[in-house]
Amino acid sequence: MKNSKFLKHLGKWSLSLVGLVIAACMLEPDLLFYALEALGVAGVSGGGSALAMAIVSTDTRESAKTLKPDSAEKPGHLANEVSKLVTIMAPDEAPIDTLLRQVDSEENTDEIQVNFEEVEIRGRQLTINGAFTAAGTTTDADKYVTLTFDNTSNVVAGETLLTRTVLGANSKPLQIRVDSKISSTQLKAYPLNVANDAMPTIADNTVFYRIAPAASELAAQAPGVSQYPDMRYNYCQRYTAQVEESYIRKKVKARSNWDFNDQNYLRMYDMKNSLESSSLFGQMSRKWSDEDQEWVYTQEGIYHQLDQELEYAGSDLTNNKWIDWTKAIFADNAGSDERYLWAGSGLMAEILKIPSVQKQQESMNVEVIAGVRLQKVETSFGILYVKFHKMFDQMGYSDEGLVLDMNNIKRRTFQSLKSEKLELKKSGQRNVDAQFISEISCLETRYLDTHRRIVKTA
Prior knowledge:
With 458 residues, this protein is of the alpha+beta class. The protein is 28% helix and 30% strand.
């Protein structure tokens, strides 16, 4: 027993002595041979073989690396350190969907095909189609003449029209009165402010503007104006997602706190972004699926519904062009005084270079609406809320954008967003926990003239 304890202490002493010898030899390499010989004669730690085991060693750092996992096939012995927090990479946000869900802009529907009506305010502008040449005489035929316009649907008998490009008496703008309506393109009219009461020459494409009616003393009624809404429609699309976690994986201890709830959150996030991309760029269709033996519907995105465009080429977005843009956005339509400009990164960079926009950016003119941070740009025609939208870049539209009147966009929901648990294990299909997420919805884009699509032409 005593010998055993002694040998144990001797072994510890031997290793310590070897360590001292090696350290000394690192300072003077020639001492190594003599040191080994001396230790061998003394018979420390069982002689030369034991010394060989003690001295011939590998780099401890390299040993540790080989014990670390290199791959799934070579997991190693030591576990790599893993942070308990898993960073979820959020490549995109869905600001339009966020705004529409948090403001009062949702209406339920009982049909997959959503029909909606819209009627425009009666316009005030009409254009001469074909020049009118004055006769040079003052007969009644020269006073009461037939004028041809591109469209007379917004005019009734008794109303007066004004143009600035043709002058009447005292060099003032010509005003005429509609005596009767002949057809959808022709009006019988006479001038109100010319010296000889005869209709003067009117050039082709002359623009007239409808102003107040002028009734005679005996008139007991006015011509009726009937306006009927136009019908448009979109399809509600069914959006689905499914999250699964096997029961075996559920029981295995994870290195981080990543669990089924995180999977569910990430899948919901991806679904929301997918819904946003469809709402912006989707194509409307109703097609039969041979696999499902059912009809599949897809909605039409806002971008492809619009026909009014703002164009720019290269870096030509100057203050003057910006003013023209804001005029086109807010003027001559019945939209809101506040619009939202969603831009890809290329377009956003060009907008931020505009001097008038830069000045407002420096003043930190920022507003947060429904959790979405927006740059507020005030113009003489209205207010624009400008936001870089990552979805434009992800879908290949980085140089383009949309100007939307959010008051004229509505979410139509056939089935609200819901999540339900699937009993796949009980039914014998899969040994997993499963969560099924679904929504059936689409967007209505009303009054298309209040929205604009921005495109880069070169």
